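Blackboard transcription, Thursday session:
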Amino acid sequence: MSRPAYIPNFDGKRALILHRVHPVVDAISRQLAQLGISCDHCWPALPASAAGDADLMIFDADMGHDEQFPWAAGAAPMPAIALIGSEAPGRLAWTMSRGADAHLLKPVGSGGVFTALVMASNAFARRLATRAELNGLTARLEQREVIAEATACLMLRANLPAETAYAQLRRDAMAARLTIEAMAEQVVQELRGAHVHRRS
Amino acid sequence: MAWQGDTIPIGVLFSASGPYAAIGGEGLAGSILAIDEINSNALYDFKLQPHVRDPLGITENYAPLAADIVATSGARHIIGCTTSWSRKEVIPLLEKSDTMLWYPCPYEGFEVHEQVIYLGACPNQHILPLLDFALPRFGADGYLVGSNYIWGWETSRIARDAMEAAGGRVAGERFIPLGDIDVDRIIQEIRIKRPSFILNTLIGPSSYAFLDAYEALAQEDPAFQPTVRPVLSCNFSERELAQVGKPAHGQYAVSPYFQNLATPENRQFLEVVRKFAPATEHVSAFFAQAYAAVNLLAAGLSATGTDDTRAVLNAVAGRVVTAPFGPVEIENTNNHTVLTPRIGRAGSSGFEIVSDLGATIRPDPYLARATAKPFKQVSHLRVVK
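(Written on the board underneath:)
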C-alpha cells in the first residue's frame, strides 16, 4: 500500500494498560472496545511477554517507575501512551525519559483515546523509521575508514590519483551490485590476503 | 431526581432560522409533534414542558442557550443540535450540569459521548451503504463536493478510502464556504473530469445552487444526466427536495427514513403528523428522528419515574423500540442507534425507495469494524450518451 489509510483502523489489536485498578482504566477500556481493541490490565509490573503480546501500551505517569518496564528507557517496542494526572515537572520529565509517543490527561471521559492512538501510532512509526535510518548511517560512518584504505590500495596498485581510484571503486561496486562499503571491504581483504600470501 | 408535579421540563434547541433553517426547523417540528402527542396520551402520567431556544444557526449561540435552558427550567434532557460544531459546543455544558443531549441528525462519526444519544446515522450507516449501492452501478471515480466544514471533509475522506479500495480514483474534491452559491468553477471542473458520480455534502443554499447548475449542465450535455452521472447525498431531505424541485429529480440520497417508506410504523407515524400537525407537507429523517428521540425519552421517563440522565439512559439503551423508520435500538456500548439505511431517488413525489435491503446495521462510530471492499468494476459498461 502506497499510503496509510485515511481512516485509521485498530480492529483486533491488543492493548496493555499499566495502571492500578481505577475508574480511569474502565473509561479507557470502554473507549478501546469501541475501536475493536481488546485490552489487558496490569500493575505494578509489565509481564516480560508484553513486548510480543501487545500492540500498544498505555502507562501511568503518576506512579510509574523505570523498574516496571522490561525494556530500556525510550525503547518501547510498541506505541506508548502516557496517562498523566499530575502535571508536576518531575513526573513530566520521567514521562519524557520513557519516551511517550502520545499522552492522555486524567480524568478520562468519553473521548481522547482515539486521538492518542492515532498520534502514538504515527510517532512510533516515525521512531522506527528514524532508528533504522540512523543505524544505516552509523554503519556507513563506521566504514569510512575501509573506503579510505581501499582507495589508497587502488592508488598504490595502479599508481592512480585519489579521484580516479575512488571513481574506480565506485564503478566496481556498481558492476558487482555491492554497496561501496562492501566493495571496499573486498578490495582491502584481497590485498591483505595477497600481502599475507606473499610474505609466507 | 423525580420531577415535581406532573410536568417535566425538556429543552428543545434547534435553529429554525439561519443558514440551515430548513433542516433545523424539521428537528423542531418533529420534537414539538412528539411532545404534543405524548401530552395528549393518557397512558403517560406526566406532561412534557418544552423550553424552546433558537440559536439562529450561529454556533456560538448554542452553549449559552443550552445553559439558559438548564438554569431557567431545570431540564435534564435537551433535544437538539443539527451540526457537529454545535453539538461539540454544547458538550461541556452537558458534562458540567449532568444533562443529556438527544441528537437526531446524521453526522460524520468519531465521537461516543456518555451524555449524548445519537439518533441519526453514523458513516457505516450512511456513506458506506450509499457507496455500496452506487459504485457497482455508476463506477468508482467519484467527484467530491461539500461545504467547507467537518461534515463534508470527513464524509468525503471516508468516501475517498472506499472509492480507492474499489479501484477507483477521486476525480476531484472541492469545498466551498457555508452559504456560498458560486458553483460555476466546480461545474466546469466536473464537465472536464467527467466523474462516475458526484458526492454532494453541501449544506442548504450551496446544495440547491449546485443541483440547479448541475441540471443546467445535464441539459447541455446528456452525459451528465442522473441516469449516467448522478449526484449522491447523505443529507438531502424531503423539504429541501420540495424546495429545489425538478433540478434534483433523479438524484440519490441515503437515509434510514423517507416519507415514502411503506411500512406500518410509518403509516401510523404519518397519521400522527396529520392529526397533530396537519399543516406539515414534508417529513424528513431530521423530523422523524427528532420525533423518535422525544418518544424514546418519554419511554425512559415513564419506565424509571425519574429524569435522572443515567437512569433514563439505562432504561432505553439496549431496548428495541418502535420508531417511524421501524424497530430501532440504542446500542448500549456507544449510545448510537441501530438503523436500516435506505436509498431514495428524488422525484416529483418525494424520494422513491430504490434500495432497501431491510438489514439493520449496528452503529460503528469509529469505523472500527468496517472493512473496505473491492467492487467489481462496471464503469466501463456504462452507456455514455
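Lecturer's comment: The longest strand of chain B covers residues 7-13.
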